[in-house]
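Researcher: Re-running this chain for the archive, since the previous output was lost when a drive failed. Same request as before.
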Amino acid sequence: MSNPAVTIYTDGSCSPNPGPGGWGAVIVPENGKKRELSGKVDDTTNNRMEILAALEALRSLPGCSMVTLYTDSRYVQEGISSWIEKWRNCNWLTAEGNPVKNRDLWEALDSELERHRVQWFWVRGHADNKNNNRADALATAARGRAILPLHDQSAIHIFTGITWRKKSGTGSWAAVLCYRRHVKVIGDTVTDSSANRIHIQSACQALCSLKRRLPVHLYTSSGYLKEGAGSWLPGWIRNGWLTREGNKVSNAQEWQALSGILSETDVSFHVVDKKMPPCHSQEAKELAVEWVEELRDELTCRHSMREIIP
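Model: Regenerated structure tokens:
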């Protein structure tokens, strides 16, 4: 059985150079759905982002693949095609005897190439290749995003996703909980609720499921949840669960439950980019959508049975 064929377009961006940078990749399997990846580094260079884009794209492939990779970086294309074998043989020194710049990334990329068969092609940047232009847009957009602490191994990472169908009055939530190599998925369906309430409920349920007292990073698409947990709760508690205007706090019961949990657990809330969420956030969202569809079908079936049975 032949290895799957994949075409990849990568780009890196840094402004100023050196300075904050981003990378982007468009991954187009021969059979399958197109995927997009991107990321940000606070202090870097344009060349490092160009290498990192290729490295992360190859790392994302689940198995050995036949890869055609397009980059608009002569540095990357010639580094892989012409220079890297000489660097490796010369103990990562240039022809002038100087240390190879970005050795850490070149070595990581060299190691990743052992898994795949890759053909490298240079493509002119900012021209008429739509996938290369998309990779450039992803890299540029990533520069402006907040960096998420996804690699903090001292903490538990919780990725939540919710959906709410107002018309049918049904919703659901899912959470992917990660600690190092351990992963757990939980979730539930709900009725008679709201999107904001489900966001709070998902956080409460996920945090209550933890068996270890460790710092937690919770990733959500809800600014309401982040601001409420991080800024508004102390004022609501002081005011007897009334707003500044003297109105009752919406979803007070859920906020009270979350407040009790936060008094015992160190939780940092992070709002994810809805257009480019972390993989586990996307997974949680897709699970929530799947589960609410199942609930809707079940409720529809019950309604139909009531109509048929005299």
